[in-house]
């Protein structure tokens, strides 16, 4: 049975947290997806002088204040990675591995995806390219799969896929030691192009070519256009109006994902607006 919420917030940066605070005050049932580390970009800021009320603080100090505020208001972060979101008309289904969450409205506060798409990625999406290895692995029983991972959690996915596929290539885009099952071939190289005819046939690297039936790209976060089918995007940003409404009814967006300037105070303000708009939408739609 799906867990049901009024609002699901995707992203735990200033926009997502701000939205959560305002939704909590208005007594709506919500879930906040993200990382307890909040924002890596926030951590790296040496000084923040343009966030009202906080002068000459480091990003680390501001992050600590965010944590304290959330703790006082009993706001928890669900540390699960959303693989895809589907608009079902009256609700949204959020896919996480082998389960789903259900929400009447969603707020996208995903920030900016800094990983560039690989050539051929969009062309073969759904035709050999995927973003959830554990979801789609059964489609590749007895076949060859390549997993390009930008984080260590990809090792768990590769170990799972190894139980189903005949051959698994693991291409880590990070440094470190790898805890992988015997038989998984680690390829230290940079992928440049995904190729095929109607479906994926090969993955071209800088120094070699891998013949493969499927390619899974496991990033820290998906770009909004990959996450929500049908979402209108312009110059890699979500199109949203001043109420933070997108082209999909019940879907709101805030923060860096809707465009510059990329500043914490701007993101927090938009998170506030998105929360108020989502609450109004619920009150008007579900009377």
From TrEMBL:
Q: Is-annotated flag, keyword Flavoprotein?
A: yes
The chain positions of domain FAD/NAD(P)-binding read: 5-142, 180-271
- Per the UniProt entry, the Enzyme Commission number(s) are 1.8.1.9
UniProt keyword Oxidoreductase present: yes
Which segment of the chain is annotated as a signal peptide?
none
Q: What enzyme category does the UniProt record give?
A: oxidoreductase
Which is an annotated GO molecular function term of this record?
thioredoxin-disulfide reductase (NADPH) activity
Q: Which UniProt keywords apply?
A: Flavoprotein, Oxidoreductase
Which InterPro entries does the record cross-reference, listed alphabetically? FAD/NAD-bd_sf (IPR036188), FAD/NAD-binding_dom (IPR023753), Ferredoxin-NADP_redctase_2 (IPR050097)
Query: Which Pfam families has this protein been placed in?
Result: Pyr_redox_2
Q: What PANTHER family does this protein's entry cite? A: THIOREDOXIN REDUCTASE 1-RELATED-RELATED
Quote the protein name from its UniProt record.
tRNA uridine 5-carboxymethylaminomethyl modification protein GidA
From the broadest rank down, the organism's phylogenetic lineage runs: Bacteria, Bacillati, Bacillota, Clostridia, Eubacteriales
Q: Gene name, please?
A: gidA
């Amino acid at each position: 049975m799906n867990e049901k919420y009024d609002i699901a917030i995707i992203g735990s940066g200033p926009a997502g947290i701000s939205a959560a605070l305002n939704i909590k005050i208005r007594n709506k049932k919500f879930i906040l997806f993200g990382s307890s580390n909040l924002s890596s970009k926030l951590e790296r800021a040496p000084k923040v002088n343009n966030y009202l009320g906080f002068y000459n603080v480091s990003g680390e100090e501001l992050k600590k204040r965010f944590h304290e505020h959330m703790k006082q208001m009993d706001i928890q972060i669900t540390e699960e990675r959303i693989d895809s979101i589907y608009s079902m008309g009256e609700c949204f289904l959020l896919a996480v591995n082998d389960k789903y969450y259900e929400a009447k409205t969603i707020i996208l506060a995903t920030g900016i995806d800094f990983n560039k798409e690989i050539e051929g990625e969009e062309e073969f999406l759904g035709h050999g390219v995927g973003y959830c290895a554990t979801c789609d692995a059964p489609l590749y029983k007895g076949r060859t799969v390549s997993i390009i991972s930008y984080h260590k959690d990809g090792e768990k996915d590769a170990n799972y896929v190894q139980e189903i596929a005949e051959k698994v290539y693991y291409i880590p885009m990070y440094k470190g030691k790898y805890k992988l099952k015997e038989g998984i071939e680690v390829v230290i190289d940079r992928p440049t192009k995904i190729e095929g005819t109607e479906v994926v046939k090969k993955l071209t690297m800088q120094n070699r070519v891998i013949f493969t039936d499927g390619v899974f790209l496991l990033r820290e976060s998906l770009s909004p256009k990959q996450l929500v089918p049908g979402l209108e995007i312009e110059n890699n940003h979500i199109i949203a109006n001043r109420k933070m409404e997108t082209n999909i009814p019940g879907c709101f967006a805030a923060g860096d994902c809707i465009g510059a300037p990329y500043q914490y105070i701007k993101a927090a303000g938009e998170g506030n607006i998105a929360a108020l708009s989502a609450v109004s939408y619920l009150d008007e739609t579900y009377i």
